[in-house]
């Protein structure tokens, strides 16, 4: 490597290290005071949420299926993006699930990010913070994780598809009831007899019958 090439490399490397930090907005979700409100529906939101779920699953033993939960208010497309970044078989939390990895909050600040996640540990839920580094030209990778050993409240399912599927099921059930009622209730034909009373004033007068005695007699014809 020539001295000129070495100088060029030394100048470019710090520049590339700065670009990722400059291109990533500072935001927190769910939002807190003093931070910009930005839903993590685009990179690096899905990446760091999926990364924190995988890291919490690994640190807690890596056994069993990955059942995850995200903060409330995220659209169905964001949930799909996170699912694609997780191991095969991972699924969103449903009501009644007991071993869930639930993202509580993520904080993105330039080329660094932190994700608070609740994970199951020996029958209770604990809080963990996973720190990441990355950027526009670098993959987001976990730097370290810190387990707080603080019992956390069991998560509630936030998957928007739960409400969407429930509404669709309710609409389908309503349509079935309407169809069933239409099929059960027969069409009844009712015959009504109406007696028409004609008043005397409206009755037609009887036609006069001619008297034979008053009628002229034709003369006999001769043979």
Provide the residue-averaged pLDDT: 80
One letter per element, helices H and strands E, the order comes to HEEHEHEEEEEH
First-last Cα distance: 161 Å
Poorly predicted residue ranges: 6-23
How much helix, percentage-wise, in residues?
25-40%
What is the tally of helical segments? Answer: 4
Assembly annotation: single chain
* Share in β-strands: 25-35%
> Would you count the extended β strands for me?
8
User: Which structural class matches the secondary elements?
Assistant: alpha/beta
Give a quick account of the main beta sheet: strands, pairing sense, barrel closure. 8 strands, mixed
Shape: rod-shaped
Rg value = 43 Å
Keywords:
single chain; 223 residues; alpha/beta; eight-stranded mixed beta sheet; 8 strands; 32% helix
Short description:
With 223 residues, the chain is α/β, with parallel strands linked by helices. The protein has helices at 3-23, 45-59, 76-85, 160-184; strands at residues 27-29, 36-37, 67-69, 91-92, 101-109, 112-121, 124-135, 138-152.
How does the SSE layout of this entry go?
Elements: H1 3-23, E1 27-29, E2 36-37, H2 45-59, E3 67-69, H3 76-85, E4 91-92, E5 101-109, E6 112-121, E7 124-135, E8 138-152, H4 160-184
Helix pairs in contact: 2-3
């Amino acid at each position: 490597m020539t001295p000129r090439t070495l100088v060029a490399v030394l100048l470019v490397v710090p520049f590339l290290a700065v670009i990722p930090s400059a291109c990533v907005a500072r935001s927190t979700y769910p939002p807190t005071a003093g931070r910009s409100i930005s839903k993590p529906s685009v990179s690096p939101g899905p990446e760091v949420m999926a990364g924190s779920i995988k890291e919490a699953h690994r640190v807690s033993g890596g056994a069993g299926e990955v059942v995850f939960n995200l903060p409330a208010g995220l659209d169905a497309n964001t949930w799909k993006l996170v699912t694609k970044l997780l191991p095969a078989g991972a699924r969103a939390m449903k009501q009644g699930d007991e071993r869930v990895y639930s993202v509580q909050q993520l904080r993105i600040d330039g080329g660094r990010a932190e994700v608070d996640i609740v994970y199951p540990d020996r029958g209770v839920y604990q809080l963990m913070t996973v720190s990441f580094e990355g950027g526009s030209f670098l993959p987001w990778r976990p730097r370290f994780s810190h387990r707080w050993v603080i019992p956390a409240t069991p998560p509630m399912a936030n998957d928007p598809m739960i409400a969407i599927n429930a509404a669709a099921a309710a609409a389908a059930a309503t349509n079935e009831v309407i169809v069933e009622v239409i099929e059960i209730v027969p069409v009844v034909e009712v015959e009504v007899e109406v007696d028409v009373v004609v008043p005397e004033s409206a009755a037609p007068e009887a036609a006069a019958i001619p008297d034979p005695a008053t009628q002229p007699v034709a003369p006999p014809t001769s043979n």
